Request: fold
Amino acid sequence: MKAHPYALSKTRCHYAATRAGLEFVITRRPFKTPFYSVAQSLDAAGMPVAIGYNALLLARVGEVIGMAINGQRLWRRIEQLAAFTESQRPYTRRAFTELHRQSRVWLRSQFEEAGLSVATDAGGNLIGRLGGANPSLKPILTGSHSDTVPQGGRFDGIAGVLAGLEVAHALSDCGARMQHPLEVVDFLSEEPSDYGVSCVGSRAMVGRLTPEMLQQTAADNSKLRDAINGVGGQPARLNRPLRPAGSIAGFFELHIEQGPVLEAEGLDIGIVTDIVGIRRLGLVVKGAADHAGTTPMGLRRDALVGAAKIVSWVNDYACSGSDEQTYLVGTVGKLEVIPNGANVVPGEVRMTLEMRGNSETKVDEFAVEAVAFAKAVCGEMGLDFSHALLSASTPMSCHPFVQTAIEQACRERGAAYRSMASGAGHDAAYMGRLGPSGMIFIPCLSGRSHCPEEWASAEQLALGAQILLDAMLIFDQSRC
Reply:
């Protein structure tokens, strides 16, 4: 009799069998007969045997799998991690801050409680590992990020880290192991950091954190490389990928949708097909800071007026550049006006232009055209203009193998789902450079995100985590 990879625990187990994947038997309580003799009887009847955990078991051709997450435990951890926030600005937990460091101390303890061995890699990523039944296989990774934007929410990123942790904990609960090793990752600083760089940890893992990025400074003049060192990373090792291409079997990331589609259509799950590329430029417009009352309008070199024209052009260009095939958006969401006085003509404006799209060519064209327009308009107004590339990521198509595993899990659970693109950037986009990568979206209330009102219900989160577990088990077997 061939041993099933999940048949590792003699307690709290349930039994199932299948004939050619067309029929399956579910029992909701353990047999009183010793489990091995039951397995032998089923095997003798020509039915492949699987031992799963909890009540619901999934049938597929030649196999049956089953295991359940603990939704209450997952929700409790969501609330506990949310408590690590600036009291006056919920929910704020910025990367590289003392709050983020404290939250990671707690997160490490939760990883260890779930039976994971824990380490911080050179990129500052916190990684928990659960060994596989076949240690020679490449690991399957899951996770997201635990940092937030200022006054962000309790679920963006956090849901993916804690759902991945719950997957590992559910396996440990019943003494089970996947064939592949499992790694749960809290990626460092997925949100744009005070150093102007996003996805710091996943960039580091795949070798996309450049020397120029490591030298970028925050308002306190500290450098990104020093901040990474401060969280236990090793910036001296970031001159090459921490993991080579092909070094992982796959990557799964659960995330709130951060949009209204799933909720509006009454769906449980979004299967992500592709993730937008993002390019951020730092733009500086310089004029002259003069007295607002004594400087005639025609003699002013008002940097903010020039910046406003650039912002307006960005909006017009993005609106005209989108169609049914092309997703393209542009945003100037951060401006610093200097000297920022009510009675002073603005002498300088520093701003960040962010462009996103599902076509790398279109995003590149957007950036080129934006710089050309800015130079032209500033030249006409007697203003100086400069720009610098802050960060860039390319669009990524999610791997068909990962999408198929998620879809199969949805079908078996009876979850309503659809395929959809992601207009937000995610660590999964970088992980696609290492191996098959994909994402699971769950609904969020009114599509709101990056705000304290961000919300997903305990039931939505639990179902998403269950689909994550099921899909990873399906993928685990398919890639052996």
